[in-house]
Amino acid sequence: MSRRGRAILSGLAVAVLFSLPLVPEIVGSRRLVFRDAHVTHWPWRRVAMDLVSSGKAPFVNETASGGQPLLANPNAVLLYPSLLLEKLVPPASAFNLHYLLHVLWAYFGARALASRLGVSDGGAFFSGVAYAFSGAMLSYASAFANAGPAAAWLPWCAAAVLDLARADTWRMRIRASAATGLAFGLQFLAGEPAISLLTGVFAAALAAAAWLASRRDRLASGGRLAAGGALAAAVGLGVAAPLLLPLLEIVRLTFRGQHLYSARAFGASPFAPWQMVEWLFPRFAGDPGSLGEGAHWQYRLHEGDLVYLWSVTFGVLPLLVVLAAGIRRAFWSRRAIFLAAGAVVTLAFSFGFALPFYRLLYSAEFLRRLRYPIKFYLLTTLCVALLSGFAVDALRRRRGGYREAVLFGLVVVFFAFAFFASGENGLLDRLVRPHLSGPAAQTTDLLPTIRRVFRGDAVFGVVAALLAAALVFPRRTRGTGHALGLATLVLALPAGLPLFVSSDHEDLERPPALLPALRSSGRLYVSPPVPGLSAAETEYAPTPSRLSMSKLARVQIEEMIPATAAPFGVRYMFDEDPDGSYGWVNRAAGDVLTASKPDERAQLLTSFGTRFILAERGSAFAGFRPVTGFAVAGRHLVLHETPAAAPDLRWASRAFRRTSLSGSIELVRSDLFRPVHDVVLPGPKDEGPGPVPSPAYLLERVLEADRALVDVDAGAPGHMIFSRTFFPAWKGLLDGAPAPVLLANGRDLAVAVPPGKHRVEIFWNPASFRRGVVLQGLALLAAFGTLLGGFVRSRAWLR
Question: Residue 583: beta bridge partners?
Answer without folding.
Answer: 254
